[in-house]
Write a structure and sequence with these properties.
Length: 258
């Protein structure tokens, strides 16, 4: 009996060309000839792609199109059983010059990409999540610089809501502490250490009322903003997936003096 050769097996592989809309998250070097792009697809969920690497004009253009949190469309060559697909014919869906031309917005975009890389590694397509992230990027792109300071807090809170771990803020009243394990406010102090008290608990309650429309009205100092940020990351780590050691967070903590 003649066994199939490697080339015969390759010919049997079924390549499905699929139009995809993507949020680019992270690109790393794979070899001298290719990079690996981690992305979130509207049609297929989290995906990894090979894209050509190089130093020519086309490679420079491609890298610009695939900056973290870029929103693009292209054609994916999907092979059943393979983790990597080939991506070609890349075109922008949304132009985000307002993000990449602004250092503070760009730093926030990098943090958003890191958070999504950590939290969307597996799973099925989620159109609501896609719409939320794309809509958030449009907001960030169009925001005046004077209104950006609280954006990342509202975005992270929204991610928690999207994955089903939003705290029960209806339990809040003045003087309560926040039980991070139970996701609710309470009068009696829990026996564990995952709890926020006093002003920290009150500031977390404030977050539940913040939206992209009103966030500029909420005046927070850097310390309060960073306390809310760290508390949210700790909360997501407790209830969903570890996100409290993202490298880009340190940069965002130093933004916005007031």
């Amino acid at each position: 009996m003649n066994l199939p050769t490697g080339s015969d097996i390759h010919k049997c592989e079924s390549v499905m060309k699929t139009s995809v809309s993507l949020i680019a998250l992270r690109t790393i070097r794979h070899s001298d000839r290719s990079d690996i792009l981690s992305a979130y697809s509207r049609e297929l969920g989290p995906m990894s792609f090979t894209v050509p690497a190089g130093a020519g004009k086309e490679s420079v253009r491609r890298r610009a199109l695939l900056m973290p949190m870029s929103i693009v469309e292209g054609v994916a060559d999907v092979v059943a059983g393979r983790e990597l697909s080939r991506l070609s014919q890349i075109r922008p869906i949304v132009m985000l010059q307002g993000v990449y031309g602004n250092p503070a917005k760009n730093a926030i975009a990098l943090m958003m990409a890191d958070l999504l890389c950590a939290s969307l590694r597996q799973g099925q397509p989620d159109r609501a999540m896609w719409d939320y992230v794309c809509g958030s990027m449009r907001v960030l792109n169009d925001l005046p610089s004077s209104r950006v300071a609280n954006f990342h807090l509202v975005f992270i809170y929204g991610i928690g809501r999207m994955v089903g771990i939003e705290p029960d803020y209806s339990t809040y009243s003045a003087g309560c502490c926040f039980d991070m394990r139970e996701g609710r406010f309470c009068r009696s102090l829990p026996l564990h250490g995952d709890v926020l008290m006093g002003n920290d608990a009150r500031m977390v309650a404030t977050l539940s009322r913040m939206t992209y429309r009103n966030m500029h009205i909420v005046k927070l100092c850097r310390n309060d903003r960073n306390m809310i940020l760290d508390s949210m990351l700790r909360y997501i780590t407790i209830h969903y997936i570890p996100v409290d050691r993202l490298r880009s967070i340190d940069v965002v903590r130093e933004l916005f003096n007031s």
